[in-house]
Every structure is written in structure tokens, then in C-alpha cells.
Amino acid sequence: MELAALNLVNATLNWVTSALDAPSARAVVFGVHIGGHLFVEVLLLVVILFLLSQKSYKPPKRPLTKKEIDELCDEWVPESLIPSITQEMLSEPPVLESAAGPCTVINGKEVVNFASANYLGFVGHEKLLESCTSALEKYGVGSCGPRGFYGTIDVHLDCEARIAKFLGTHDSILYSYGLSTMFSAIPCFCKKGDIIVVDEGVHWGIQNGLYLSRSTIVYFKHNDMESLEKTLEKITSENQRAKKLRRYIVVEAVYQCSVVIGMNKPMIVHSLLKWSRRHGNCKVQWVNVDDTLFWLVQNSGQIAPLDKIIRLKEKYRFRVLLDETNSFGVLGHTGRGLTEYCGVPIEKIDIVTAAMGHALATEGGFCTGSARVIDHQRLSSSGYVFSASLPPYLASAAITAIDVLEENPYLTLKLKENIAILWKGLSDIQGLSIASNPESPIVFLVLEKSTGSVKGDLQLLEDISDRALKQESIYVVASKRSTLDRCPLPVGIRLFVSAAHSEPDLHKACESLKRVAAAMLRAHGGKS
Amino acid sequence: MITIPYLTALSTYFSYGLLFAFGQFRDFFRKIFDWWQASNLQGYAPICLGLEDFYIRRLYLRIQDCFGRPIASAPDAWFDVVERYSNDNNKTLKRTEKISRCLNLGSYNYLGFAAADEYCTPRVIDSLNRFSASTCSTRVDGGTTTLHKELEDCVANFVGKPAAVVFGMGYVTNSAILPVIIGKGGLIISDSLNHNSIVNGARGSGATIRVFQHNTPSHLEKVLREQIAEGQPRTHRPWKKIIVVVEGIYSMEGELCKLPEIVTVCKKYKAYVYLDEAHSIGAVGKTGRGVCELLGVDTADVDIMMGTFTKSFGSCGGYIAGSKELIQYLKYTCPAHLYATSISPPAAQQIISSIKVILGEDGSSRGAQKLARIRENSNFFRSELQKMGFEVLGDNDSPVMPIMLYNPAKIPAFSRECLKQNIAVVTVAFPATPLLLARARICISASHTKEDLLKALEVISQVGDLVGIKYFPAEPKKQLQHQEQQPGKDTIKLE
Questions:
Q1: Among residues 316-375 of chain A, which lie with CB inside 8 Å of chain B?
Q2: The pTM is what?
Q3: Which residues in chain B touch residue A485, judged by CB atoms under 8 angstroms apart?
Q4: Rounded CA gap, A487 and A504, in Å?
């Protein structure tokens, strides 16, 4: 048995060996001996190549068919264009029946007007009205074209030259609307990749300009120079290699709003002590909302410390953009604005913008600076190139206003006196406290004890201002904000002081406000 | 669609190439010169980097005298252009005391309200004396006068919508309204040739922006279907809302928008329509009510109608008209209403008075006459120019007429030659138009008389021959009623 199996195995082996040793398997190709094992290897290679050449399995791409797209389009339901109207949206502002001067007529009654930013009292001034009338008769109302296409009228060029001469700069450029000045000037110089350091409390025009410029934006705490220094330090150390990076600081001269800083309890006491030591003229108030203590910084109407900003700017090599809307014509002993007030030469500020709708009692805005800055804006600023120019009568009103201001510098003194009278009268008002800088033309009153919610505060302040208007004939306004505004505005009552307000009016206003505030807070205290 | 002859395209490219090369050459030498001289920037980055203002410095400054010409009178049919001279090869231009009286073919004065008008001006001066030049405050804070209320009612009535809100500047109207009604998660589909204010407003809103081919409703439909099916980018969530933005008359083309088709498409796909009637309100339509009237579209189908008062009403400012709820919502949230000074009272009175004249409520038929005159003038002028062989864009009835120039050298040539013969025209080049398609834009007004137009035609024809812009063959004078246009051979179609 074993012998037979052994014989079989031997025979198989012999057969295989002979097959592999067959003459065909042993060929000589190009002097190379080819053995039979090469067959197997070649076969293996062929199999590998075949597998590699096969495509990997991908699920087939099936674009949507027309029917499916139709179904999706039918199913899609858009949101309504606007959210539903709530009660507070229906409120209408009071309608004036005469010019917005220091006294105006509302609903047939004469009221003292603290709601117009008519700082120097130019509304209704005869010289302005005269120049407007002659301009209207000569040029008509509108300018009918953008500046590049026959919309440049000689009064525009005269106005620009006059502003530049008044402020002592090289040149200036006129915009046809105050709000568009900042949001056209900023994207002109700041593009993607540049860095802008900006105060938290700037108004919507600046915020929109920053957003449109697509640069990197860093906020620093409202009017806090230490925070500014820290931010500048951080940015400079992070970007040391970037030589071509343009860096800007944007501040407003007089802020129209202030800021709410939210912190949790452990940090509050420490920061509070540090803060109150630094800022003597501020009051701190505790508001408890949802277990987080909100610390109201009552510094709206605050004036930016320009000299400190200039020192920081020179140290870290930043350029400064200054918005002088509420300080042009107000600060400084000849009304030249914040630079005169702080004693800084205007060449140190790179770009100064202002809206003319406040002290100068016309519309529009201007931007001033060095020749290079202004020339660049004439072709790349979208609000200048793609929009119709300022109506010529408003430009001639601006020239007259500056002439009057230059001839009568006592107007700024009168304004300061009025602000001081109002401060004295309102300093002991019950339930409200003044939160603005003593030199600012906007006197900002906030509630000492909040109702607990921003909405409730706003309602109370609106009630106070309504009552003041209806019963006491004093027109003041509560601050309003848009849903688009990023800066967390405080709510308060604003009084715009004018040089044309007379003393009896101011005293009357103080008395009336005290009465109304006391009455309303008593009523409200009784309700809650 | 503009067909540009092959040779012209070639020569235009060549001219721009030459100018670019020269510009780079001069920049190179300037760099060497500056490096040799000490720089006074002291560590600050230059305020304008590299190629950002290359176009301005090297191309625009050569022909700067054709733009921004100051005038010394009202922009009426005839006005005074101030002459300027330059000592440093057009880098700075200085005014002289000399003026030349020219025919105005450039200002937006469609109905002739630009100069002092017998009905409007006395009322404007009255309102100036009553309300002063400005209210110095925002609309919500004591800037609303009885005049503003009257104005809004008047505008809403005129446009054909329940309510309207008025702002002090047209540009700001677009920039501040779009962010309020749409935000992140929404889609804005805008025409490829929309105005810069719409583009800015759309960017500022944070919504996604898609563009459809100029005035092509079929492409709009394709984009809408694609976008609704795909949803928001990356997350594919459904869009919150879709707004389609179109203009009534496109200011660089003079074309009317194909509004009925676009409104049908939008209704089918539930998108909202935003119509910007900056150039068409007051200028087209039987009673001047804009493209909706002209093309027979019901105003209730257009959700938001926007327009400006600068062009046909001779004033300034912009408006938004829509349903009562929309306007109430806008008055509550729009930053231009809450933070910006209200429109100047004399300007408001001018708008009210001019609307009254247009509607005939002042007791005369001047409004109807003006509307008829502007229609006649535009159609006459356009057909005459086309007969002469110029390439004129735009539809019939539109008062805006661009004449194609193409070549960068012809821009200053046309402008300066016309000025020498006392015709003031506006020439437009890059970046307001595509690089190759420079043009001269004519705006007809109702205050142009027949003699004015004939003089203008004569001068333009002469200058056209001199400069060489009659791209089409002229019609012989004693020929038939309709003109035959035969574009030259080997044309390239540019869209």
C-alpha cells in the first residue's frame, strides 16, 4: 500500500519536473535563461495590473430632475417680508408746524425745543435765509447730476475751499448727506486685510462703513485709553512683519451714546474700584438682570481725549480718523472742534469728517485732510462718485454759516453758558442723573434706578418725554435705536442745547422736568 | 447686446495696452526716483497701495478735464460752464473767471425742473422762510414737520402705493433699506448692471448675492430654480426669503427693464420684487408714473418701489413706497430714518410742487406738455442719431441715450470737440462701464426746444465724422421711413 502511494507521488513529481523542464519552458531570450516559474510570476503581474486598472466604485451622480426641482420650488415657503407689527411700531413722532428753532409749534402750542441739534442757533438766522434765497433763485433747488457729470457748481468748490480755510487744512470734499460721509470715506482707504481699531460706542454710519470695508475690526472699550493702548500693543506685536498693512483708529469727538458692560459678579468689585478711581465724574449704578450684574457706564455725551490718542498713534504708527459731527462749531474757543479744544494741531489727524446737519444748520457732510487723502476720495468714494451732489443752496448756507461763526465767536461761549445753566438746574433732579461730559452740547439723562428691563426703561422714558411735551410744553426726546445697530445703546433722555435758548426757557425746562420726573416716577413706583 | 466691429475691438485693446505699458514705465521711473529721495512716511504704510490707484494716476488724469466740469448757473437746457486751465499736464486744474454758454446734454433734468420754475420757486422760498434750510434733527426726534407728512402722502399717491417714506439722499435709501428687510440666510438676486448703491446695500445686508444676466427673465428663472432647489450654501437649508432687485431704466444703457416678465417669474417662485426707479419715475409713462405705468404692470405686484427725486423733480432725496405695514416697520427700524437728518424742507416743497405740476393740479397743463415734449424729444433725437450712423443704445421712449465710442482716445476727443462748439456732453469710461465699451451719454430734457436739438445733432454729426464713431452706415437723406441697420462684417458679439 505505502509503496503504491509513494510510487504515485514520485510519478507526479517526476511528471511536474519534466513538464517544467520541458524544452519550451526553458528558452533563451536575449541571452537570459527563462525558467518555468516566470510563467506564474507574469500571470500574477497581469492579474495585479487588471485589478489596478478597474475604477473604484462611486455612487452614480444623479442631478435633480426638472420635476423634482418643480416640486421643491412649490414646497418652498418664504418668510414674510417684514415681521408682524407690534404696538410700539405704531407710535408716531410729534409733527412740527414751524422751524425747528429754540421754540417751535407743535399741535398749535408753542413749546421749548430741546430735540434739534441746532447748537449755534442758526436755524432761522436771517443771513442764512438770505443766502439760501439768492442761491435758490439763481440755481434752482437740485443740482441734477453727480459731481463728475456737470453736478459741480461753483458754490460747491467755494464751500470746500472755505471749510479747508476755516479748519486750516489743505483741502476738503463735500458729501451730499451727513450719514453717507463716514460710510463712504472708510471703504475708500481700508480694504480687506487692513486693521481698524474702533471705539465701541460709534454710531451706525461708521459701523456700516467698517463692515463694507471688509477689514479686520477690533473694538476697544468706550473712551478707555488703557484699553486702547493694550489693543494697539497686541496688534503691533502680532503683525510686526506686515509692512504694507494699513492701520487706523476711528473715534468720534462727542459720542451720542454710551455703553453697557456686562460682567459677572466676582469681577465687578475690582473693576468698579479701578474705574471709579480713574473717572471722577461718573456715577455707577447697579442693575440686576437675570443674575448678571450690568454696570452702566454713564458716560455718553463723552468727549474723546484726543491728545492721549495722538500720543498712542505716534507711538504705534496708526492713522486716525476723527468724526467731528457733534463737536464742529461747538468745542474750542473759536468753534474749530476737538483739535482746538485739546490743543492738537490739525495736521496730526489724518482724516476728519463731520456732518453739517448739526452746528451749521444745513445738510450734507464734509471730509478734510491732506491733499492726497482728499484727491483719492474724489474718484474712489462711492457716496461721492455715484450720487448726486449737494443742492447748491445748502452749500451756500454752509458758507454763510461759517462766515457768521467766524465773525461771532461769542456764540460758542453762549452755548457753554447755556449748558452750564442746564447742568446746574438738572443736577438735583429726582430719579434721573446726568451722564454726559459737562462740556458736551448733548445733555444725557439716565434713570437712576432701572425698571429691570431695557424695554421697561424705554417705556418709562417715553412717558416722561410725552408728559413733558403735553403738560409742560418742553420737547425732549428719549433715545431710539435701530435693530441694525451693534453698539448697545443705553436708553436715556437727550437734550440738545442751543446757543439760542434763552435763560428763562432753560430755567423753565429744568423746573418742568423735575416736576414731571417726580410725578412719573411716583406713579410708576406706585404701579410696580 | 452690443456688437463691436472686429477692427475696433482690436484697436481698443491695443490702445489700452499702450496706455498701460506707458503707465507702468512711468511708475517704474517714479519708484526709482522715490527710492533715491528720502521717503517721508516714517514707518506708516502708504495710504494707497500699488495698483489701487494706477488707473487714476496714469489713465484718468490724462483726460481729467473731461470730467467734473464746474458750472456757474442752474443746470437748465443752456448753462454756463466754467473754463479751467492746467499748468502741470492735467494733474491739477484751476478755475478761471471765464464762462461759456453751452447746451446741456448731460444733466438729469428730464422734466425741466432744474432751474427756477414759476410755480415751484415762490413756494419753495416760502417754505424756506417758514421752516428754515434744515431741521437739524432726525425724523423721529423733531425732524418731522407738516411738510414731511404732506410729502409722504403726495409721493404715495403719485406712485400708486398705500404709503411711502422719504429720505434725504437716494444713495443712502438703497444702502440703508436692504440691510433692514433682508439679512443672513436670505438671497438677493440682482441684475448684473445694477447701480453701485444697490450693490453696497446688498453687501451691507449680509445676505447671499447672486447675479442674473442683464434684463434676461429666462436666466432669472434658471437662477431662481437652481437656488431654491439648492438652498443656502453649504448647509442647504431653505432660504429665508428671496428678493429680486431690478432697475426701471438702466442709466448706462438707456434700456427699460422687462418688468412684466420679471414680475411673472417672481410671482411663480414666490420671490419679492424690489424696483429702483431712479431714472424712470416722472420721466416715462403717460402721466409720468414710471415704468409700471408704461409697461402696464400693476403696482400691487411690485413689493417695494424705490426712487429718487434728483432726476425728474429737480430736488434731492429718495423714497420707498410699499404697503402700510412695510413703511411702518421701516420707520421703526431703518437707520437712515432714525439717525440721519431729515430731508431739507425747501427740497421737500420742491418735490410737492413739481408733483402737483406733473399731475396738473396747479391748474395748468404744463405737466402734460412736459411729459409729451420729453417723449417726442427722446424719440426724435434717437431716430436722427441712428439715421446718421451712430451706434445708439436704449429703447424708444427712454430719455437716456448712450452713443458708443469704444476707443479710449475718442473719449477726450469727442468731449473736447463738442465743448469747443458749445455742446456739453458726458463721456463715461471704466469703471462705470466695461473696459472696452466707453460711451458718451446724452440725457434729453423737456426744456430742450427743437432748435436746440437740431443744433446738437449738427454738432454731434460733425464731431462724429471728425472722431470717427459712425460705426454704422448712414442712411442717405432722401430715403424711406424705416432705417436698415447692417452691422459690419466680422463682428464680435459682446454681452
A1: 317, 319, 350, 355, 357-358, 361-363, 372-373
A2: 0.83
A3: 335
A4: 37
